[in-house]
Design a protein that fits this description.
Elements (H helix, E strand, L loop, with lengths): L2 H30 L5 H24 L2 H7 L4 H33 L47
Helix pairs in contact: 1-2, 2-4
Length: 154
């Protein structure tokens, strides 16, 4: 098999990671409208950029044997090139996971945005009548209130 074939086979897991990243980005954008942290969207964007760059770098590196054979680059220069590309790619991957971890931690906390607090329990309808409105339908018992006694039953 050729170097290109090996590179394509090696790139398959990264392409699958790219697909998962795109799906995660889509779902996190949809959930963003429902109040999910923007950090998760940022994490997927960073992950997608890092994964795409690593796929491109993998195809560039597939030709490294010709770089060494040309005699224009020494072993130290090749090592410096790999270090110069590898460290930022790893840093981007680390940043994306760090953003995911922070977003997950933030999602467990209650929101600090002002607004109406949700009712903590099940809704018991009908609720008590407001001034100027008729009482609820007969037959319903208000939570925390004893049922009305008829005058004959007293």
């Amino acid at each position: 098999m050729s170097d290109l074939t090996y590179t394509i086979i090696e790139a398959v897991p990264r392409v699958l990671l790219l697909v998962v990243g795109v799906l995660g980005l889509i779902f996190s954008i949809k959930r963003r409208a429902k109040g999910v942290s923007g950090l998760m969207v940022g994490a997927f964007v960073v992950m997608l950029v890092a994964t795409a760059a690593s796929i491109v770098w993998q195809f560039v590196v597939s030709n490294v044997s010709s770089w060494a054979a040309s005699g224009q680059l020494t072993g130290d220069e090749l090592r410096l090139i790999f270090l110069g590309v590898g460290v930022p790619l790893d840093a981007a991957a680390l940043l994306s996971w760090l953003l995911v971890a922070i977003a997950v931690l933030k999602s467990g906390r209650p929101s600090r945005q002002p607004g109406v607090a949700p009712y903590p329990g099940p809704v018991n309808y009908p609720m008590a009548a407001q001034p100027g409105f008729p009482n609820p339908q007969p037959g319903h018992i208000q939570p925390g209130h004893p049922p009305d006694q008829h005058p004959e039953a007293r």
